[in-house]
Amino acid sequence: MTTTPQSLFATHEATLRSAVEASRSRAYWSAFPEMPSPRAYGETAAADGEAAFAAHRDQPFALDQPGATKAPAGTLGGERSPFGFDLGITYPAPDIDALIGAAKAAMPGWRKAGPDGRAGVCVEILKRLNARSFEIANAVMHTTGQAFMMAFQAGGPHAQDRGLEAVAYGWKAMTDQAPAARWEKPQGKNPPLVMDKRFEVVGRGIGLVIGCATFPTWNGYPGLFASLVTGNAVIVKPGPTAILPLAITVRVAREVLAEAGLDPNLVTLAVGDTIAKDLALRPEVTLIDYTGSTGFGDWLERNAHQAQVYTEKAGVNSVVIDGTDDPKGMVRNLAFTLSLYSGQMCTTTQVIFVPKDGIQAGAERMGFDQVVAVLAGGVDKFLSDPERAVEVLGAIQSDATLSRIKEASKLGTVALPSRAVVHPKFPEARVRTPLILTMDAKEEDKYGHELFGPIAIVVKTDSTADSLERAARLTRTRGALTAGLYSTDPALIEQATEAFVEAGVALSVNLTGGVFVNQSAAFSDFHGTGANPAANAALCDLAFVANRFRVVQSRVPVVAEAAP
Amino acid sequence: MTTTPQSLFATHEATLRSAVEASRSRAYWSAFPEMPSPRAYGETAAADGEAAFAAHRDQPFALDQPGATKAPAGTLGGERSPFGFDLGITYPAPDIDALIGAAKAAMPGWRKAGPDGRAGVCVEILKRLNARSFEIANAVMHTTGQAFMMAFQAGGPHAQDRGLEAVAYGWKAMTDQAPAARWEKPQGKNPPLVMDKRFEVVGRGIGLVIGCATFPTWNGYPGLFASLVTGNAVIVKPGPTAILPLAITVRVAREVLAEAGLDPNLVTLAVGDTIAKDLALRPEVTLIDYTGSTGFGDWLERNAHQAQVYTEKAGVNSVVIDGTDDPKGMVRNLAFTLSLYSGQMCTTTQVIFVPKDGIQAGAERMGFDQVVAVLAGGVDKFLSDPERAVEVLGAIQSDATLSRIKEASKLGTVALPSRAVVHPKFPEARVRTPLILTMDAKEEDKYGHELFGPIAIVVKTDSTADSLERAARLTRTRGALTAGLYSTDPALIEQATEAFVEAGVALSVNLTGGVFVNQSAAFSDFHGTGANPAANAALCDLAFVANRFRVVQSRVPVVAEAAP
């Protein structure tokens, strides 16, 4: 049987409907197994993925996209693993006019595939990506510095779930109105007015996805699939240090499109240090998805007037500690949060507000200094075994973060110094443990802006009310993707929930077990809200998809048939 | 029984569900009777409405909103009926800081009313407005120049239907995800992770509605109700010549809000010539709905970075005539379209493309000149009886349009001159019939930009293919809200439909009866597409509402109960 968009829809319709239902109910659901187990992925999957990654190294990455051969500057690349070796991969330098021309030419055929057909193709791309999760995990690990397990989960199945979520939302939004209707308006004693109407979903143009250095697939897939499923072409511009995961993604997407009889130029790759600005201002580019620095995000929002711009930028995430009846669980939970991927997550807690008079911890009072001590001790103990530590910490992604750790240690009183850990397998990997500082609440000029990386500050406040007021204000002024609260007082929890709703940030309360403030689950947790400066959109909701397409109608009168 | 948001939701839930269902099916539906009949509105409704309008005249318009008494400049007004008399109404000069402060203070209570409660309140406001349709019709008539029947229908029930449509879409979008969920993630042999989650809908801030001179309620209600139902406060800034219809609207909204125990400052009025720019750049203003000139619309899109901006601007609407088997019906239909409200609709056809070799009209060929002659003759005949003519034409809204008619007559060959008609009831009314010109296709510099008012140009093209190419290009470059086609060739109709879908404009085919290209029906026809320069949004779809609110979540672990 020939593969068509419609046949792919038939194959994946049940998955799609489950995804739509999960995104409504917000109960637990996932389409892609998160454990890298042979049972889920096959006996040879791990070895195959490692071999596929090895085969990419020291080679040109072949991509048969337009302009690749006649590009002026030849090839680009230069990725280096934070675990200590060069990838040696080169990519075709993009010919922007050729990519844009090819993308525009591909769009009418993509429109005609219709909402169902496009959704079917997109789910098929995601399933193919899932099958390559080990290869992608290695690519993510050795570009971002994530340890393997995280690179597999966040870079593979969790990213694919976020992509599927975007497909499901896009499909739901596109099919919100009937594709055709008979409209019959009564006219009293006269015959009714009767019209046949058609409602066509039309993509807005070309989507540009600007990838980030730390989560190229997880942060890239929502925009990529939201734009693609809604009828647009997509040009993927990876961050210069994390190209490979998105290059593999583009290649897989092109393969599936071609197999389904569609133009593969609907998805292309544009590698280059300075081309993001050029692409972002092109009139053909009507959608931009961006994750990265506030500076460039603000520039996009203020200059790319022709496009709908979705940004995720910097923020300062807070946790407010009022009290807990499980101090050990709290410390264990926070230690993991601060350590995971060396705090290089946009969702990692940076500021922990503790009242100067301390907290109620189970049966006893715990002074401010004691809270700091148990937290520092908890992190230190959690990372005491190097073999285990490196599997949580991963490696430091950028030189800038390395320097930041050094500089930050001068900002306040050091409660726990950051130390280098020698990676048992990769001796050249740059591994660092979290730095924990203490500061006074009034030193907001030091702790109140993003210090990206393994840097946490315990801030001494007058009271929990003071903590809440400060955390909410930081969220409103500096942005935040996450907030946390520990308290045993139901009234205070309700009051804090209200304060964080008004500040516009997702709140996690009393996490002491296996759920962490810096992790969100597709189909249930929204990542970001769009309601504070850290992001102007959420992953994923109706607002994230509904503005990526238009509905264009036609209508024609129905002529009454002559009586027989 | 006390009126509450929840009790209003209970009262109006069936209406709301019908509106949601109609907007999905796109079949005919309306909540508000469009005929100004005593049966629908009551025996005394017409007289009561006229009396209510008369009572507004030569009076200050009382509105108990913040800052009204201490406003610096006193009062503003100066509306004059295009039918020839001053309204003599004055409005409180706004104190912008007071309005913004009061709006922000009102929002938390409005959020707590929840999606259902807010929708209930909004439908109640619309029902109250409906009961005052005669009063509003008189206000619309004597600010915009619409004839009474149109002022009633478009200014009353049709505008109310468009408002209800926005409420229905907003309610649907806000309730797209469950308000709360229990999330239970399996952990193999270990107990599952269990979290309780809440998802709160939060408005983005203050919505600013900038009204237009010709359809203050019809173009104003969608933005007003879309922003309001989604949890925002709204400041209504009417066009300086059409204040009264929106002032009445604001007063009714405030009454209903207060009766439901809510803060009436959620809806306020800001009258003034130059305050739109000041308001539009305020950081508290996060949503802007604008109908008017392309110049100010572009300025808003480029400068109000803090806000989501929805604009409807200028355009050039085309009809392509290829052939017809009902030439009389075609001419009758076009004559009405060109005459209705003297062509002062953003949806009125401006350019009619006809091939130089003429068209097939029923059994015979009709040359280009003959097409022009029957069209000019049809319009002339349709408007030959002054008493009937004024009920279609209404009056010319602005001096600028009066001058434009005069200037335009020099642009091409006059096929039908515009003439003044003496209004039997209002001798000072400025009534004008449509001017019809002919031009050659190459004179696009003359016909290819908006000539707002009763000005139509029949353009001579090489062929229907040429006509289609030109109409589609005009749409893409200059924008259009409507397009029309007359053809008896099914293949050509399909090809033209495709061309107009790609150009991004709604197409009406072979209209010869009681449906007109310049009219759209709420719940079935989208007004505008957002896919060409005439508008960046459609009334009304998911994209129009989904970005007006945010979802903010909180989550807390469910602690396993001890076994009994």
TrEMBL record, chains A, B:
The keyword Manganese is annotated on this UniProt entry: no
A GO cellular-component term linked to this record: cytoplasmic side of plasma membrane
UniProt record, GO biological process: L-proline catabolic process to L-glutamate
Name the UniProt record assigns to this protein: Phenylacetic acid degradation protein PaaN
Molecular-function annotations in GO: L-glutamate gamma-semialdehyde dehydrogenase activity
InterPro entries: Ald_DH/histidinol_DH, Ald_DH_C, Ald_DH_N, Aldehyde_DH_dom, PaaN_2, Proline_metab_enzyme
Aldehyde dehydrogenase domain segment(s): 94-505
Pfam families referenced in this protein's UniProt entry, alphabetically: Aldedh
Phylogenetic classification of the source organism: Bacteria, Pseudomonadati, Pseudomonadota, Alphaproteobacteria, Rhodospirillales
Source organism per UniProt: Azospirillum doebereinerae
NCBIfam families listed in its UniProt record: PaaN_2
The entry's keywords: NAD, Oxidoreductase
